[in-house]
Specification:
The protein contains 2 helices and 12 strands; from the N terminus they run αββββββββββββα. By secondary structure, the chain is of the alpha+beta class. It has a 12-stranded antiparallel barrel with strand order 1-2-3-4-5-6-7-8-9-10-11-12. The longest helix has 15 residues.
Length: 180
Amino acid sequence: MKGIHLFVFLCFLKPCFSQDLLFVRSFYSDDFSHWVLQDSNHVELGSIQSFQSFKTVRDHWNIRFGESSGSVKLHWKENPNEWDYLFNQISYYAAPVWPKQFDKWRITNNSANYSLSYTVDNEGINWSLYNSKEEVIAFMYNEYSRDLRDWIVEYDAQKIDPALLLFGVFLSCRYSTKEK
């Protein structure tokens, strides 16, 4: 009887700790200009794709998620590490906290500040997106150890706006695989 009570308790407890997953995969194995966003059943939800016309600098990206779309563009042509993002009429700006150091980012919009940072451990690269209270609201890591082509994003859809989540995913993919 205790087993049944424990099972019922765990079934009701699960929604309290639910975590949404998003899989991010490089479309090509040797090129990081096109990413596919999938759910846990491998159903395509959207994409992040570089929009370039015979340029080596990828300064304009398109993001599609479901029926919504947006774009990421360089803020300054002279500084290839500051970005403007517009998705569903929501805009964000991102820049490294320290110039030319890409392990910590400041993301802002008109109403809030966020930060994005990465760490490296034995398993690979981990990115964490924090709200203004320094609480983790999304976490991204390599699906396979140190393989930059496949990522898993854990987040709680109740606590993060999809526009912010996708911008964090863009920056994570872009600066994990940035051409040197």
